[in-house]
Structures are given as C-alpha cells and as structure tokens.
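WP5 quarterly update. Target: 8-oxoguanine deaminase. Source organism: Streptomyces milbemycinicus. Length: 468 aa.
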Amino acid sequence: MNSAAEPNRTAAAKRIVIENCAIATVDAHDTEYTSGHIVVAGNRLESLGPGPAPAGLDGVVRRVDGTGHLATPGLVNTHHHFYQWITRGLAQDHNLFNWLVALYPTWARIDEPMVYEAARASLAMMVRGGVTCAMDHHYVFPRGAGDLLGAELRAAGELGVRFTAARGSMDRGVSDGGLPPDFAVETTEDALRATEEAVDAHHDPSYDSMLQIAVAPCSPFSVSTELLREAAALARRKGVRLHTHGSETMEEEKFCHELFGMGPTDYFESTGWLGEDVWMAHCVHMNDADIAAFARTGTGVAHCPSSNARLAAGIARVPDLLAAGVPVGLGVDGTASNESGELHTELRNALLINRLGTHRETALNARQALRLGTYGGARVLGRQEQIGSLEPGKLADLVLWKLDGLGHSTIADPVAALVLGPPAPVTLSLVDGRPVVESGRLLTADEDDIARRARDEARRLARIVADG
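Structure tokens (predicted):
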C-alpha cells in the first residue's frame, strides 16, 4: 500500500514543514541529504528531498528550522518487558537462569496498578529517546492481579506511541519442571483463550494502526509443547504475528536437547514456530544451520545487545544473520536486564559489541546500526510498508535529532554522530504526524509524575515481597 492508493487522503490535510536538516531516509538505497526538507500532511509523509520545501504549500500549520539536526525514521523497539521497570537493579551478577529464579518470586506479585505505572515509565523513557513504535512482551499473569494487558494498552494510548502488544503466556510452572512459581502461570486452555480474546478485542490490522496484538508464549523452558503448537495455530487462524524468546543461552540449548532431543531452532520448527510471521528475541547461540533455517523461512530476530551483555548470554551473530538475509531489529529488553531502558543507546551498543574480536572492525557499521533500529525493526514487526523509512506515502513517524551541541558538533557525518556519539537530544518526534516530544521533553505525559508513581509502585512491590 502507498500514497497512490489513497490519492485524496492528504489533499486537505494540515501540513508540517521541516527544512535545513540532514536526512537519513533508510530507504532501499540508503538515500541521504546533507540539507533537505520533509513535508508531513496529516499522518503521512507527503514529500522529502534536497533543499527547501516546495513553495506555495497550502495548510501549513508549522515550519521547523532543522539547522544542525538529522532527521531519521522513528526508532522501532522489537522486544521489551515493561513490568520489569519496577524491579531494576536486582540480581546484578546473575546469568539468565539464575536471574529468572531470583526474580520470578517477585514478578509473581505484580498487579494492575504496578504494570500500568511500569508501562508508563518504560514507554516514556523510550519515546523521549526517539522511539515511535514500541513493543512489549508481557507473559506474567498472576491469579487475581487484574487486567495487566489492559494496563499496558491504556499507557501506550495515553502516551501516543504506536504499539505492538505481544500477549505472552506461561503454562510450565515449577511443579512441571519450569522456572516460574505455579501461581504465576496459566493453564494451557486459559492462556489460549485469553490470547484469542486479546486479538479479537484489540488487534487493528489497518495501514494506520496504532495498536496490534501478537501471540507470544514466553520461552521453551516455561511453555509446554502443546501451548507452542496451539498458539502458532491460533495466530495463523487470526492473521497475527508470533513472538517468543529463542536461543538466548547455552543453558537453553542444553535444556532443549535434554527435554526434546534437539536444539531450540529444530524444536521451534517442529512446533510450527518458524516463518515470515515469527520473530524471536536474542538468538545468541545459533549455528550455521540455525541461521540458514531462519533465512529460509523469513523468521525475524530481535537483537538485544545490552541485555545479552548484562546477563553474560553471549554475542549474537548479527553480521552473519544480516548476510544470510534474516530480518533483524533491535530490542531494549526488560529493564531488569537493561536498566537504561532506552533504544537509541542500543544503536551504539549493537555496533560496538558486534565488533568485539580480532579483525572485526567492519562487522557492523553506523548505517547498518541505524537500519537495525528503524527499518529492520519495522520489518520484524511486519510493518515495513508503513514505517521504518522516510518515503512519501508512509506514516509520519520521524525524529529530529539535535547534533550541533557539545556532544556531536565536531562529528561531520551526522549518522556517525547519532550512532557513535553520546545519546543525541530529540528536538522533535512525530508519531502518526502528531508531536510527542519537543526539545527533549514528553508532550503527552508529565515525566516527573511518571517517575514518582513508578517509584511508589516499586516500593509497594518490594514491601509485598518482604512481607511474604
């Protein structure tokens, strides 16, 4: 679908004109302009190119001088766990399995007000840093905790961010050989029923959609084979995407071999979990055959470099995945394993971590890192036709980064300044053509209020856990 399909959509729209900025379109040709313009009409990108905007435009409600700035597509987050915002800084020196064992008893105590405030804080942190399309994988549903998915949807709607909510699930508790406490998991039937209800109630498949739902059982070690198989069938019956964790640690590899007699990728394929409608988080421990299987099936990857480093999981083979044609985007991951909670810092971390090792200085470059965080993420979420690059007809999700300040002014290449320099301030961020950030501050919520309320919920959770 493109602008030609709806020729009258922007004819009478209000326009925002941005001029004098560098532009990295992240289109198929990596087109860039050292000084150019962007015209937004309604919620669409109407035109862009070198030099000033066309003269005589009607309905211009705002003109922005982008001198000293770089315009890029909005960042797209492909993996997160919002609820973890209120458990940051815990289990600081653990690997994944020990970290999960340490934290699941706490996470099993969350409730609706906690999830709402954690979601607001997680979203606020990302949006303030240039994210225009967020994603969350929520899979902890303690009994009697309230409407946890609804809390996230409410928070995303209030902050004005485009959102993919992956309705997660776990049905393998401690008594069945899993890691989470039994009272924090659902039955297979309840998980499938609640997931289908979420899709029916909230998924919007339209071009302009601000909210989509994915089907997302948690991981091979917290989900039964039946739930995996039935969830895949459910997603395909409903025409929505599938998401889970995969190949994150060596322990997971060992677990799959011991339980299923095969590695994670072969196990996922045996349960219907490879395909163009699937993306998996992490994918650190993959051999050549695994990468070939992902490439052959079009299965996507959410690369989470900071979380992988925090939990000592390893380094994903991102250059090899890209070379094979695997769709790859970036993920913040939960803030109990990436306390910064920001995606724009993952651009730099992805580049640096993937260069670790001898003679790897060209393993990943600045423009590839930017593509991972924009078009790559849109492709992983199945939204590359609407977002992820700056092209006429696409939705107006874009960010104007300030690069003429102390941290960036001596880096002549604006893309290198954004990726390699310190976190760049966001002067303007548009989602669906509407401003959500101005001069580094949220327009859709009070940051101080969010910080205070999230702190209060974190303290309440800590008290509940301490009281047993």
